[in-house]
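FORM 7B: Structural annotation worksheet

SECTION A. Query
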Amino acid sequence: MGAPPARIEAPARQGGAAHLTRAQKAAIIVRFLLNEGAEVPLTDLPEGLQARLTTQMGSMRYVDRGTLAAVVAEFARELEGMGLTFPRGVAGAISALDGRISAQTAARLRKEAGVRQYGDPWELVRRTELASLVPVIEGESAEVAAVILSKLEVARAAELLGLLPGPVARRITYAISQTGSVSPEAVDRIGLALAAQLQDVPETAFAEGAVARVGAILNYSAAAIRDEVLEGLEETDQDFAALVRRAIFTFVHLPERIKPTDVPRVLREVDQATLVTALAGAQADDLAPVAEFLLANMSKRMADALREEIAERDRVRPRDAEAAQTEVVNAVRRLEAAGDIALIRRDEAGAEND
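SECTION B. Predicted structure
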């Protein structure tokens, strides 16, 4: 049929659209929008509605100008009166609430409702590291592996092929020649199965590992308790104890974990009284080098003033000194979390000391 004009100049007849069904009105609106050059995302509709709309459009021949104007006006009124829309079905609701409900709840709702978890599963596959795809490819038949390679970008497919053993790569390469008759449904099923396999990582209750959690707890523990716990861990599991020791970050570790140029920035985060207490309690044993490290990397005027205050200070109780030193370390952690400073990694510190 001929395309309707871009502008509606004739007045709409009052009953012009009264005899039309909602399906016919929808077909008219879609046809009108397409003629106007609008992008209509019909793929977002359920397949049944897409088929019904297509069939309806195929059965219609001509709509006069007045009827078109009436349908468009009715459509505009419905849009103006619409205050809020909700996603269709559980799948849409889960997508709308993504990041606002727990992953466990979303997975359970998908399973109960039989909702497909992935829009296009091949997008997930394309984003996956090639090293993670190698064992998957090796565990599949040559035909399935050929489909997987065919869905990747040419450069990535070639790189992945190069990571495979020669005989496996040759079988898959030959199998690609046999994929011409594979149906889109089969490719979709392979993608879904592969995406599910790649995402099949056991859920854990804790975001961090055991070493990081124990280290974080001991960071805030009193030194006596920390030493006692570490001794007990070494008796039980020396390897785990060694990892925990590396995860611990306390006042004594400052010279090996923060850059000398970051010392003034850190100390500005600590009030004067707390800093004096921390340094006064670090004048002996293994803490003396830490105090000297901090004093040596600040301005000479400030260091001299602090040394005078430390000399005038009465003996500091170990508990007070430890609390003040923890405040200094906490200032380091805050700055590191905010991205204002970068800590020296343990391996870097070890390399510098070698």
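SECTION C. Observations
Residues 87-117 form one domain. The first helix runs from residue 22 to 35.

SECTION D. Sign-off
Analyst initials: ____
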